[in-house]
Give the backbone structure.
Amino acid sequence: MLEAFNFRVILEYMPLYGKCFLATLWLSALSLFGAILVGIIACAMRLSQSRFLSRAAGVYIESIRSTPLLAQLYFFYFGLPTLGIMLPEWVTGVLALTLNSGAYYAEIIRSGIQAIHFGQIEAGIASGLSYFQRMRHIILPQALGMTIRPMLGQAIVLVKDSSLLSLISIMELTRAGQLLTSERFMPTEGFLTTAAFYLIIYYMLKAFSNWSEKRLIFQEAY
Amino acid sequence: MISFKNVNKWYGDLHVLNDIDLEIAPGEVVVVCGPSGSGKSTLIRCINRLEPIQKGELVVDNMAVHDKKINMTKIRADIGFVFQSFNLYPHMTALQNTTIAPLKVRKMKNEEAEKLGREVLTRVGLEDRIDHYPAQLSGGQQQRVAIARGLCMRPKIMLFDEPTSALDPEMIGEVLDVMKTLAREGMTMMVVTHEMGFAREVANRVVFMDEGKIVEVAPPNDFFTNPQTERGKYFLSSILSH
Protein backbone atom coordinates (compact mmCIF):
# COMPACT_ATOMS: atom_id res chain seq x y z
CA MET A 1 0.00 0.00 0.00
CA LEU A 2 2.84 2.35 0.87
CA GLU A 3 4.12 1.92 -2.66
CA ALA A 4 0.80 3.05 -3.97
CA PHE A 5 0.81 6.03 -1.67
CA ASN A 6 2.41 8.96 -3.46
CA PHE A 7 4.18 11.16 -0.92
CA ARG A 8 5.86 13.25 -3.61
CA VAL A 9 2.58 14.64 -4.83
CA ILE A 10 1.52 15.48 -1.30
CA LEU A 11 4.73 17.45 -0.83
CA GLU A 12 4.04 19.18 -4.10
CA TYR A 13 0.59 20.20 -2.86
CA MET A 14 1.83 21.15 0.65
CA PRO A 15 1.79 24.93 0.04
CA LEU A 16 -1.87 24.62 -0.99
CA TYR A 17 -2.64 22.49 2.07
CA GLY A 18 -0.85 24.99 4.29
CA LYS A 19 -2.92 27.85 2.95
CA CYS A 20 -6.14 25.84 3.24
CA PHE A 21 -5.25 24.69 6.77
CA LEU A 22 -4.92 28.32 7.84
CA ALA A 23 -8.19 29.14 6.05
CA THR A 24 -10.05 26.36 7.91
CA LEU A 25 -8.47 27.59 11.14
CA TRP A 26 -9.52 31.18 10.88
CA LEU A 27 -12.94 30.48 9.34
CA SER A 28 -13.64 28.06 12.23
CA ALA A 29 -12.22 30.38 14.87
CA LEU A 30 -14.30 33.28 13.64
CA SER A 31 -17.44 31.12 13.47
CA LEU A 32 -16.72 29.64 16.91
CA PHE A 33 -16.34 33.05 18.49
CA GLY A 34 -19.54 34.23 16.80
CA ALA A 35 -21.41 31.05 17.70
CA ILE A 36 -20.59 31.31 21.41
CA LEU A 37 -21.68 34.95 21.39
CA VAL A 38 -24.91 34.11 19.52
CA GLY A 39 -25.38 31.15 21.87
CA ILE A 40 -25.12 33.33 24.99
CA ILE A 41 -27.56 35.89 23.57
CA ALA A 42 -30.05 33.29 22.29
CA CYS A 43 -29.86 31.46 25.60
CA ALA A 44 -30.46 34.67 27.58
CA MET A 45 -33.47 35.37 25.34
CA ARG A 46 -34.76 31.81 25.71
CA LEU A 47 -34.64 32.09 29.50
CA SER A 48 -35.96 35.65 29.68
CA GLN A 49 -39.26 36.62 31.30
CA SER A 50 -40.45 38.18 28.06
CA ARG A 51 -42.60 35.73 26.16
CA PHE A 52 -41.77 37.38 22.85
CA LEU A 53 -37.99 37.09 23.29
CA SER A 54 -38.27 33.56 24.58
CA ARG A 55 -40.47 32.45 21.66
CA ALA A 56 -38.23 34.16 19.11
CA ALA A 57 -35.16 32.39 20.47
CA GLY A 58 -37.14 29.14 20.56
CA VAL A 59 -38.06 29.43 16.88
CA TYR A 60 -34.44 30.17 15.98
CA ILE A 61 -33.03 27.23 17.96
CA GLU A 62 -35.66 24.75 16.79
CA SER A 63 -35.49 25.65 13.13
CA ILE A 64 -31.69 25.43 13.07
CA ARG A 65 -31.59 22.15 14.94
CA SER A 66 -34.28 20.56 12.80
CA THR A 67 -32.75 21.37 9.39
CA PRO A 68 -29.50 20.20 7.78
CA LEU A 69 -26.54 22.57 7.78
CA LEU A 70 -26.10 22.07 4.04
CA ALA A 71 -29.65 23.33 3.41
CA GLN A 72 -28.96 26.34 5.65
CA LEU A 73 -25.71 27.02 3.82
CA TYR A 74 -27.43 26.89 0.42
CA PHE A 75 -30.19 29.09 1.75
CA PHE A 76 -27.67 31.79 2.64
CA TYR A 77 -25.57 31.25 -0.48
CA PHE A 78 -28.37 31.22 -3.06
CA GLY A 79 -31.21 32.79 -1.08
CA LEU A 80 -29.62 35.98 0.21
CA PRO A 81 -28.56 37.30 -3.24
CA THR A 82 -32.17 36.95 -4.48
CA LEU A 83 -33.15 39.20 -1.58
CA GLY A 84 -30.60 41.70 -2.84
CA ILE A 85 -28.02 40.93 -0.15
CA MET A 86 -24.66 40.31 -1.79
CA LEU A 87 -21.98 39.00 0.54
CA PRO A 88 -18.53 37.57 -0.16
CA GLU A 89 -18.50 33.74 -0.02
CA TRP A 90 -16.46 33.57 3.16
CA VAL A 91 -18.89 35.90 4.96
CA THR A 92 -21.81 33.72 3.86
CA GLY A 93 -19.95 30.65 5.07
CA VAL A 94 -19.04 32.13 8.46
CA LEU A 95 -22.59 33.43 8.87
CA ALA A 96 -24.10 29.99 8.23
CA LEU A 97 -21.65 28.23 10.57
CA THR A 98 -22.13 30.88 13.26
CA LEU A 99 -25.91 30.72 13.21
CA ASN A 100 -25.88 26.93 13.03
CA SER A 101 -23.53 26.31 15.96
CA GLY A 102 -25.03 29.25 17.84
CA ALA A 103 -28.28 27.32 18.25
CA TYR A 104 -26.44 24.32 19.69
CA TYR A 105 -24.37 26.54 21.98
CA ALA A 106 -27.57 28.17 23.22
CA GLU A 107 -28.80 24.77 24.38
CA ILE A 108 -25.44 23.77 25.90
CA ILE A 109 -25.18 27.03 27.84
CA ARG A 110 -28.82 26.71 28.93
CA SER A 111 -28.05 23.32 30.46
CA GLY A 112 -25.16 24.94 32.35
CA ILE A 113 -27.26 27.84 33.57
CA GLN A 114 -30.13 25.64 34.67
CA ALA A 115 -27.73 23.49 36.66
CA ILE A 116 -27.02 26.53 38.86
CA HIS A 117 -29.05 26.50 42.05
CA PHE A 118 -31.65 29.29 41.81
CA GLY A 119 -30.80 30.37 45.34
CA GLN A 120 -27.54 31.91 44.08
CA ILE A 121 -29.45 34.06 41.63
CA GLU A 122 -31.80 35.12 44.43
CA ALA A 123 -28.80 35.97 46.59
CA GLY A 124 -27.52 38.16 43.75
CA ILE A 125 -30.90 39.87 43.40
CA ALA A 126 -31.11 40.39 47.16
CA SER A 127 -27.74 42.15 47.26
CA GLY A 128 -28.77 44.56 44.51
CA LEU A 129 -26.78 43.12 41.58
CA SER A 130 -28.35 43.95 38.22
CA TYR A 131 -29.32 41.35 35.62
CA PHE A 132 -26.11 41.89 33.65
CA GLN A 133 -23.94 41.86 36.76
CA ARG A 134 -25.51 38.56 37.84
CA MET A 135 -24.96 37.12 34.36
CA ARG A 136 -21.38 38.36 34.16
CA HIS A 137 -20.16 37.49 37.65
CA ILE A 138 -22.35 34.67 38.96
CA ILE A 139 -24.08 32.78 36.17
CA LEU A 140 -21.84 32.72 33.10
CA PRO A 141 -18.52 31.92 34.82
CA GLN A 142 -20.12 28.82 36.32
CA ALA A 143 -22.25 27.86 33.30
CA LEU A 144 -19.30 28.14 30.90
CA GLY A 145 -16.98 26.38 33.34
CA MET A 146 -19.36 23.46 33.83
CA THR A 147 -19.99 23.00 30.11
CA ILE A 148 -16.39 23.15 28.80
CA ARG A 149 -16.58 19.54 27.58
CA PRO A 150 -19.83 19.73 25.57
CA MET A 151 -18.66 23.12 24.28
CA LEU A 152 -15.46 21.51 23.06
CA GLY A 153 -17.52 18.76 21.42
CA GLN A 154 -19.54 21.35 19.56
CA ALA A 155 -16.36 23.20 18.54
CA ILE A 156 -15.05 19.99 16.98
CA VAL A 157 -18.36 19.51 15.16
CA LEU A 158 -18.06 23.09 13.90
CA VAL A 159 -14.54 22.52 12.54
CA LYS A 160 -15.71 19.39 10.75
CA ASP A 161 -18.83 21.16 9.47
CA SER A 162 -16.62 23.83 7.94
CA SER A 163 -15.76 21.21 5.29
CA LEU A 164 -19.19 21.96 3.78
CA LEU A 165 -17.87 25.40 2.85
CA SER A 166 -15.94 23.63 0.07
CA LEU A 167 -19.33 23.33 -1.66
CA ILE A 168 -19.66 27.11 -1.99
CA SER A 169 -16.16 27.26 -3.48
CA ILE A 170 -14.33 28.48 -0.41
CA MET A 171 -10.70 27.33 -0.30
CA GLU A 172 -10.32 25.22 2.83
CA LEU A 173 -8.98 21.78 3.77
CA THR A 174 -11.63 19.63 2.13
CA ARG A 175 -11.46 21.74 -1.01
CA ALA A 176 -7.68 21.06 -1.12
CA GLY A 177 -8.40 17.33 -1.10
CA GLN A 178 -10.94 17.75 -3.86
CA LEU A 179 -8.42 19.68 -5.95
CA LEU A 180 -5.72 17.04 -5.57
CA THR A 181 -8.29 14.39 -6.46
CA SER A 182 -9.58 16.10 -9.56
CA GLU A 183 -6.24 17.37 -10.86
CA ARG A 184 -4.17 14.20 -10.28
CA PHE A 185 -6.88 11.63 -9.60
CA MET A 186 -5.39 10.71 -6.22
CA PRO A 187 -8.34 10.59 -3.77
CA THR A 188 -6.47 8.51 -1.13
CA GLU A 189 -3.57 10.95 -0.91
CA GLY A 190 -5.87 13.93 -1.16
CA PHE A 191 -8.36 13.10 1.54
CA LEU A 192 -5.98 11.34 3.95
CA THR A 193 -3.88 14.49 4.00
CA THR A 194 -7.03 16.53 4.59
CA ALA A 195 -7.97 14.19 7.44
CA ALA A 196 -4.50 14.51 9.01
CA PHE A 197 -4.86 18.29 9.15
CA TYR A 198 -8.29 18.02 10.79
CA LEU A 199 -6.68 15.74 13.36
CA ILE A 200 -4.13 18.46 14.13
CA ILE A 201 -6.94 20.95 14.76
CA TYR A 202 -8.69 18.41 16.98
CA TYR A 203 -5.61 18.04 19.17
CA MET A 204 -5.17 21.79 19.35
CA LEU A 205 -8.75 22.17 20.58
CA LYS A 206 -8.33 19.37 23.06
CA ALA A 207 -5.20 20.94 24.50
CA PHE A 208 -7.03 24.24 24.84
CA SER A 209 -9.95 22.53 26.53
CA ASN A 210 -7.70 20.77 29.07
CA TRP A 211 -5.95 24.01 29.83
CA SER A 212 -9.13 26.04 30.18
CA GLU A 213 -10.80 23.36 32.25
CA LYS A 214 -8.03 23.73 34.81
CA ARG A 215 -8.38 27.50 34.70
CA LEU A 216 -12.17 27.86 34.50
CA ILE A 217 -13.41 24.98 36.61
CA PHE A 218 -12.38 25.74 40.11
CA GLN A 219 -11.68 22.26 41.28
CA GLU A 220 -11.31 23.34 44.86
CA ALA A 221 -14.74 24.93 44.59
CA TYR A 222 -16.69 21.73 44.05
CA MET B 1 -38.41 51.07 59.50
CA ILE B 2 -40.62 48.35 58.05
CA SER B 3 -44.34 48.87 57.87
CA PHE B 4 -46.90 46.36 56.63
CA LYS B 5 -50.40 47.76 56.14
CA ASN B 6 -53.14 45.36 55.17
CA VAL B 7 -50.70 43.29 53.06
CA ASN B 8 -52.13 40.40 51.06
CA LYS B 9 -50.56 37.85 48.78
CA TRP B 10 -51.88 34.86 46.91
CA TYR B 11 -50.24 31.94 45.09
CA GLY B 12 -53.11 31.09 42.76
CA ASP B 13 -55.97 30.30 45.13
CA LEU B 14 -53.73 29.93 48.15
CA HIS B 15 -53.93 32.97 50.40
CA VAL B 16 -50.35 33.03 51.74
CA LEU B 17 -50.45 36.43 53.43
CA ASN B 18 -53.78 37.53 54.82
CA ASP B 19 -54.23 41.16 55.98
CA ILE B 20 -50.79 41.54 57.54
CA ASP B 21 -50.33 44.61 59.75
CA LEU B 22 -46.96 45.02 61.40
CA GLU B 23 -44.64 47.89 62.31
CA ILE B 24 -40.96 47.37 63.00
CA ALA B 25 -38.98 50.17 64.61
CA PRO B 26 -35.31 50.92 63.89
CA GLY B 27 -33.05 48.77 66.04
CA GLU B 28 -35.80 46.32 66.82
CA VAL B 29 -35.23 42.55 66.67
CA VAL B 30 -38.33 40.59 65.69
CA VAL B 31 -38.52 36.81 65.59
CA VAL B 32 -41.15 35.27 63.32
CA CYS B 33 -42.28 31.75 64.08
CA GLY B 34 -45.12 29.46 63.20
CA PRO B 35 -45.85 26.08 61.65
CA SER B 36 -44.56 25.14 58.23
CA GLY B 37 -46.61 26.77 55.45
CA SER B 38 -47.79 29.59 57.68
CA GLY B 39 -46.29 32.28 55.44
CA LYS B 40 -43.38 33.38 57.63
CA SER B 41 -40.72 33.03 54.92
CA THR B 42 -42.98 34.72 52.41
CA LEU B 43 -43.47 37.57 54.87
CA ILE B 44 -39.79 38.47 55.03
CA ARG B 45 -39.15 37.73 51.33
CA CYS B 46 -41.70 40.43 50.50
CA ILE B 47 -39.62 43.07 52.28
CA ASN B 48 -37.00 43.22 49.52
CA ARG B 49 -39.51 42.07 46.92
CA LEU B 50 -38.06 38.64 46.28
CA GLU B 51 -41.82 38.05 46.27
CA PRO B 52 -44.19 40.79 45.14
CA ILE B 53 -47.31 41.53 47.17
CA GLN B 54 -50.67 41.89 45.49
CA LYS B 55 -52.58 44.12 47.86
CA GLY B 56 -51.81 46.54 50.66
CA GLU B 57 -48.90 48.79 51.51
CA LEU B 58 -45.37 47.81 52.41
CA VAL B 59 -43.01 50.66 53.24
CA VAL B 60 -39.35 49.96 54.00
CA ASP B 61 -37.03 52.79 55.06
CA ASN B 62 -39.52 55.32 53.61
CA MET B 63 -39.62 53.56 50.24
CA ALA B 64 -42.88 52.10 48.94
CA VAL B 65 -41.96 48.51 48.10
CA HIS B 66 -45.56 47.76 47.01
CA ASP B 67 -45.22 50.32 44.20
CA LYS B 68 -44.40 48.33 41.04
CA LYS B 69 -42.65 51.32 39.49
CA ILE B 70 -40.07 51.74 42.19
CA ASN B 71 -36.48 50.66 41.48
CA MET B 72 -35.58 48.06 44.07
CA THR B 73 -31.80 48.07 43.57
CA LYS B 74 -31.13 50.77 46.16
CA ILE B 75 -33.42 49.28 48.80
CA ARG B 76 -32.07 45.81 48.23
CA ALA B 77 -28.50 47.06 48.64
CA ASP B 78 -29.51 48.39 52.07
CA ILE B 79 -31.07 45.12 53.22
CA GLY B 80 -28.97 42.07 54.03
CA PHE B 81 -30.68 38.76 53.38
CA VAL B 82 -29.49 35.44 54.81
CA PHE B 83 -31.00 32.27 53.33
CA GLN B 84 -31.63 28.89 54.87
CA SER B 85 -29.41 27.22 52.23
CA PHE B 86 -26.62 29.87 52.44
CA ASN B 87 -26.63 30.42 48.64
CA LEU B 88 -22.96 31.36 48.47
CA TYR B 89 -21.35 31.63 45.05
CA PRO B 90 -19.34 28.38 44.82
CA HIS B 91 -16.80 29.70 42.29
CA MET B 92 -15.72 32.54 44.58
CA THR B 93 -13.67 32.51 47.78
CA ALA B 94 -15.17 33.69 51.05
CA LEU B 95 -13.58 37.10 50.47
CA GLN B 96 -14.86 37.35 46.89
CA ASN B 97 -18.34 36.35 48.05
CA THR B 98 -18.37 39.25 50.48
CA THR B 99 -16.82 41.87 48.19
CA ILE B 100 -18.72 41.29 44.92
CA ALA B 101 -21.73 43.43 45.87
CA PRO B 102 -19.69 46.28 47.40
CA LEU B 103 -17.55 46.32 44.24
CA LYS B 104 -20.37 46.14 41.70
CA VAL B 105 -23.34 47.74 43.46
CA ARG B 106 -21.57 50.28 45.68
CA LYS B 107 -18.78 50.82 43.10
CA MET B 108 -16.19 50.57 45.85
CA LYS B 109 -12.48 50.51 44.99
CA ASN B 110 -10.70 47.13 45.03
CA GLU B 111 -8.46 47.77 48.02
CA GLU B 112 -11.26 49.37 49.96
CA ALA B 113 -13.63 46.45 49.33
CA GLU B 114 -10.96 43.93 50.25
CA LYS B 115 -10.20 45.75 53.49
CA LEU B 116 -13.92 45.82 54.31
CA GLY B 117 -14.33 42.13 53.43
CA ARG B 118 -11.43 41.08 55.67
CA GLU B 119 -12.73 43.22 58.49
CA VAL B 120 -16.27 41.79 58.29
CA LEU B 121 -15.07 38.19 57.92
CA THR B 122 -12.93 38.74 61.00
CA ARG B 123 -15.99 40.02 62.84
CA VAL B 124 -17.81 36.74 62.16
CA GLY B 125 -14.74 34.79 63.30
CA LEU B 126 -13.50 33.62 59.89
CA GLU B 127 -10.19 35.52 59.63
CA ASP B 128 -8.41 32.23 58.88
CA ARG B 129 -10.88 31.16 56.17
CA ILE B 130 -10.76 34.25 53.95
CA ASP B 131 -9.38 32.52 50.85
CA HIS B 132 -11.37 29.30 51.20
CA TYR B 133 -14.07 28.30 48.76
CA PRO B 134 -17.56 27.54 50.13
CA ALA B 135 -17.14 23.80 49.52
CA GLN B 136 -14.11 23.84 51.85
CA LEU B 137 -16.14 25.31 54.70
CA SER B 138 -18.52 23.70 57.18
CA GLY B 139 -22.20 24.62 57.12
CA GLY B 140 -21.83 26.97 60.05
CA GLN B 141 -18.84 28.69 58.45
CA GLN B 142 -20.71 29.03 55.16
CA GLN B 143 -23.65 30.64 56.90
CA ARG B 144 -21.29 33.06 58.66
CA VAL B 145 -19.80 33.98 55.27
CA ALA B 146 -23.36 34.60 54.08
CA ILE B 147 -23.96 36.90 57.05
CA ALA B 148 -20.67 38.68 56.32
CA ARG B 149 -21.76 39.09 52.69
CA GLY B 150 -24.87 40.89 53.91
CA LEU B 151 -22.95 43.03 56.44
CA CYS B 152 -20.44 44.18 53.81
CA MET B 153 -23.16 46.32 52.27
CA ARG B 154 -23.48 48.14 55.61
CA PRO B 155 -27.20 47.35 55.64
CA LYS B 156 -29.89 49.17 57.57
CA ILE B 157 -31.86 45.96 58.00
CA MET B 158 -30.85 42.29 58.17
CA LEU B 159 -33.38 39.60 57.28
CA PHE B 160 -32.80 35.95 58.19
CA ASP B 161 -34.86 33.16 56.67
CA GLU B 162 -34.41 30.10 58.93
CA PRO B 163 -30.63 30.67 59.07
CA THR B 164 -29.90 27.63 61.25
CA SER B 165 -32.42 25.08 59.91
CA ALA B 166 -29.97 23.49 57.48
CA LEU B 167 -27.15 23.23 60.03
CA ASP B 168 -25.89 20.36 62.14
CA PRO B 169 -26.75 20.96 65.80
CA GLU B 170 -23.17 21.67 66.87
CA MET B 171 -22.88 24.48 64.31
CA ILE B 172 -26.06 26.32 65.23
CA GLY B 173 -24.41 28.03 68.19
CA GLU B 174 -21.65 29.75 66.20
CA VAL B 175 -24.20 31.28 63.81
CA LEU B 176 -26.57 32.34 66.58
CA ASP B 177 -23.66 33.96 68.45
CA VAL B 178 -22.91 36.16 65.44
CA MET B 179 -26.58 37.07 65.17
CA LYS B 180 -26.83 37.88 68.87
CA THR B 181 -23.83 40.20 68.62
CA LEU B 182 -25.47 41.97 65.70
CA ALA B 183 -28.72 42.34 67.61
CA ARG B 184 -26.91 43.84 70.59
CA GLU B 185 -25.13 46.30 68.31
CA GLY B 186 -28.52 47.73 67.39
CA MET B 187 -29.12 46.21 63.95
CA THR B 188 -32.75 46.13 62.83
CA MET B 189 -33.44 42.44 62.36
CA MET B 190 -36.26 40.18 61.32
CA VAL B 191 -35.53 36.52 61.90
CA VAL B 192 -37.63 33.54 60.89
CA THR B 193 -36.50 30.85 63.30
CA HIS B 194 -37.60 28.27 65.79
CA GLU B 195 -34.59 28.89 68.01
CA MET B 196 -36.48 29.82 71.13
CA GLY B 197 -33.32 30.46 73.14
CA PHE B 198 -32.26 33.08 70.61
CA ALA B 199 -35.70 34.67 70.68
CA ARG B 200 -35.74 34.86 74.49
CA GLU B 201 -32.26 36.30 74.65
CA VAL B 202 -32.34 39.08 72.06
CA ALA B 203 -35.78 39.48 70.46
CA ASN B 204 -37.92 42.48 71.35
CA ARG B 205 -41.04 40.80 70.00
CA VAL B 206 -42.15 37.43 68.70
CA VAL B 207 -44.60 37.31 65.80
CA PHE B 208 -46.53 34.06 65.65
CA MET B 209 -48.12 33.24 62.29
CA ASP B 210 -50.53 30.59 61.11
CA GLU B 211 -52.28 30.10 57.76
CA GLY B 212 -51.05 33.42 56.38
CA LYS B 213 -52.25 35.47 59.36
CA ILE B 214 -50.45 37.05 62.26
CA VAL B 215 -52.04 35.28 65.21
CA GLU B 216 -50.06 36.76 68.09
CA VAL B 217 -47.45 39.45 68.65
CA ALA B 218 -45.86 39.55 72.10
CA PRO B 219 -42.54 40.01 73.93
CA PRO B 220 -40.76 36.62 73.92
CA ASN B 221 -41.16 35.87 77.61
CA ASP B 222 -44.91 36.51 77.50
CA PHE B 223 -45.36 34.46 74.34
CA PHE B 224 -43.35 31.48 75.54
CA THR B 225 -44.74 31.33 79.05
CA ASN B 226 -48.28 32.44 78.44
CA PRO B 227 -49.50 32.38 74.84
CA GLN B 228 -52.87 34.09 74.47
CA THR B 229 -54.28 31.93 71.67
CA GLU B 230 -55.13 28.25 71.47
CA ARG B 231 -53.12 27.98 68.23
CA GLY B 232 -50.07 29.48 69.96
CA LYS B 233 -50.39 27.08 72.91
CA TYR B 234 -50.66 24.11 70.60
CA PHE B 235 -47.65 25.23 68.52
CA LEU B 236 -45.46 25.75 71.58
CA SER B 237 -46.43 22.42 73.11
CA SER B 238 -45.58 20.65 69.87
CA ILE B 239 -42.13 22.22 69.51
CA LEU B 240 -41.20 22.01 73.18
CA SER B 241 -42.40 18.48 73.81
CA HIS B 242 -39.41 16.78 72.20
Notes: Chain B touches chain A at residues 48, 50, 73-74, 76-77, 79-81, 83, 85-91, 100-101, 104-105, 133-136, 146, 149-150, 153 (CB under 8 Å). Chain B has nine helices and ten strands.
